[in-house]
Amino acid sequence: MEDVTAGFIGFGLIGGSIARAMKLRFDNTNIIAFNYYKDRTNTSLEMALEDGTIDCISTDLAKDFRQCDIIFLCCPVLTNIQYLKELKNIIKPTCIITDVGSVKGNIHEAVHELNMDMQFIGGHPMAGSEKTGYANSSAIILENAYYILTPTKQMEKNKIDFLYNLVKRIGSIPLIMDANEHDDVVAAISHVPHLIASSLVTMVKESDDPDEKMRLLAAGGFKDITRIASSSPIMWQNICLTNTSSISKFLQRYISTLTNINNALSNSDETYLYDFFDSAREFRDNIPSKKVGMLKQVYEVYLDIIDEAGAIATIATILASNNISIKNIGIIHNREFEEGVLRIEFYDEKASIQAITVLKKYRYTIYERK
């Protein structure tokens, strides 16, 4: 594993982060990245070559990718499938091809049709950032993130073990799944929640009055639970069109749940309503918080502040003097807190933990949400 030659097709946030992590954790790793522009410079690849993340920029797959032990497809799913066709007659028999897409069913179908089952292991690193591109990539993004592997049934065990151990070495948590099971899981925990968040926003938008009172009062809890509705519409359009079956299945289950709640409201069913909220609370409170899952985690702290001029500036100064960067800050009012509180969002968990420690020293009352 120390003398691996890895090829990358697509070199943005995820591809760049994997390459950085491999360079950090492996000795003598040779990384080749393909410039699909061919007739013009790829700025990201030039940057990666300059900082030492990659060793070679290729413009000829047939020539340069024959030597690869593993190839990462990091483009959109349909583009990855096109590259599979090009790689089929180029790669050596021992080469592993993997991808990083969030939907697995369609690329596995393409692999089977191309008779490449002995060389493909689907991959889905559950990591990311609101920022994109190689310039924002980092080996740290992958640390403690689940990395799903979906090998074909014909895949040799030694190749599965190779990629499994590679994922562990770069700091992620490998988990092997069937491709269809994977698509069901991500539909339930990511794809349908995005649809729900966008639907809630649409409901409020269409129900609001001309004075926009709903939008005005939609801070705090509503804005928190609909945060993911701010994601890229193009990306989510593509996800809905590629994972349609799984999304439809879990969307119907969600609709059934809403129907049951509506019936309970109509019948004033106290027992059902209590059990519904109690069961949801218990399950939600036991979801692990120390691992990186499908939905990007928000690192936030809530605290009481004195209602006086300069109170927010004082807190910002305290954090800045301790080299703690703030991502977002603002006052919120909702029934979770008796009074208005200050909500501070940070870029990572380390910063939020440091902030809590520092602010407690200054006797601020902190609310740490689960």
Report on this model:
By secondary structure, this protein is of the alpha/beta class. The protein has three domains: 5-177, NAD(P)-binding Rossmann-like Domain (Rossmann fold), CATH 3.40.50.720; 182-285, 6-phosphogluconate dehydrogenase C-terminal like domain (6-phosphogluconate dehydrogenase C-terminal fold, Orthogonal Bundle); 299-367, ACT domain (Alpha-Beta Plaits, 2-Layer Sandwich), CATH 3.30.70.260. The protein has 14 helices and twelve strands. Helix 5 (105-113) links the parallel strand 5 and strand 6 (120-125). Helix 4 (77-87) packs parallel to helix 5 and helix 7 crosses helix 11. The radius of gyration is 24 Å and the shape is globular. The protein starts with a strand and ends with a strand. The mean pLDDT is 88.
